[in-house]
Amino acid sequence: MRRIILFDGVCNFCDSSVQFIIKRDPNGAYQFAPLQGETGKKLLNEFGLTENLDSIVYIEDDRYYKKSAAALKVCENLGGVWRLFVIFKIIPTPIRDIFYDIVVKNRYKWFGKKESCMIPSPEIRSRFLE
């Protein structure tokens, strides 16, 4: 099963989120690719997401999810207490995405920005697509 998380590679909040997921995914079900990288761009194009995307994108096999739907899908697959976040699916997606967009719009101001994408440690390098 293909499970890929596309993320903003220069965003500190996004980097922290990736590290959070890695710690809770000991079986290595998820792979990661920065939106700015070659694989990220290729996958966005493959799914017709060529607009200026400013969102996490979660790809599972031949389907994609973005914004709050992607975040909830990742939580669902993490299992444990994180699976409880699926309760937020009762809130209509447009309303969930309003809150998601507020965080996205302010993420650099609130959490900072890096000059370049993170370099993964050798232990998790294989989970990152270039």
From TrEMBL:
Identification of the protein by name: Thiol-disulfide oxidoreductase DCC family protein
PANTHER family, per database record: DUF393 DOMAIN-CONTAINING PROTEIN, THIOL-DISULFIDE OXIDOREDUCTASE DCC
Gene Ontology MF terms: protein-disulfide reductase activity
UniProt cross-references to InterPro entries, sorted A to Z: DCC1-like (IPR007263), DCC_oxidoreductase (IPR052927)
Top-rank taxon, per record: Bacteria
Native organism: Pseudoneobacillus rhizosphaerae
Pfam family, one: DCC1-like
